[in-house]
Amino acid sequence: MHILVTNDDGIKAEGIKQLVNSLQEVATITVVAPTQEKSACGHGITVIEPIKVSRYDWGQNINAFAIDGTPADCVKLGLNSLLRTPPDLVVSGINKGANLGTDVLYSGTVSAAIESVIHDIPALAFSLDTYVGNDFMLAQDVVKYLCKEMLTKRLAHDTLLNINIPYIEKSQLKGFKATKLGERKYKNIYVKETDDEKNDYYLLKGKALKSDLTDEEIDIIAIKNNYVSITPIHLDLTNYQLIEKVNEWNLKNKDF
């Protein structure tokens, strides 16, 4: 088995190191990851500037590339140019910080997995619900277990799994829960600064608002209740319930 590993925290991040360590006994690993952190870049790809690629000395007999681009660039370039044969699975993470609810629209971690399923290759995105902790023991066990499951039980070709892991001891974990996306809202605070040339710029210092959701089938609540949240995400964003209603508009009118 062959797994392509990527992330959005950069190729030197601790999360991707722990991800690779957890998967080495499961499959052959190729790493294609950004040279530096690309968090919250969404599904951006590089279409004007050249993408610089360099070999990265990972050691452990692992083929690794550092990409001067986005997580989506890493997967797109890896699948189309850097790998001789398609991998069996693409795994993105382990991200520092959860990717819950509407976070997936901004997340580079999830976007890398989305790029994989665009290429008809199954994908998993892993995030750990902490920004400061460095204990990846539970996360490593979860990664290893779910990747083995994914390699033997394939999903629909247009679906990835977004997996969020609570930052707790393994003894505190209640189990795994298949979830749906919640709605995560933020208080966006932009702090105004001035550079040396007296030009104004802004830094985003927003923080997630406390959720008042109670639906236990939502990813946000599952994590809060010490479950590993597994959310199947597919590429079709169509709101099918509204197609008929939109068709009720006078769309055949050419005199507008």
From TrEMBL:
Cofactor field: Mg(2+); a divalent metal cation
Enzyme Commission number: 3.1.3.5
Residue span(s) of domain Survival protein SurE-like phosphatase/nucleotidase: 3-187
Pfam family name, one: SurE
Species: Desulfonispora thiosulfatigenes DSM 11270
Gene3D superfamilies registered for this protein in UniProt: Survival protein SurE-like phosphatase/nucleotidase
Gene name for this UniProt entry: surE
GO molecular function: 3'-nucleotidase activity; 5'-nucleotidase activity; exopolyphosphatase activity; metal ion binding; nucleotide binding
Protein name, per record: 5'-nucleotidase SurE
Function: Nucleotidase that shows phosphatase activity on nucleoside 5'-monophosphates.
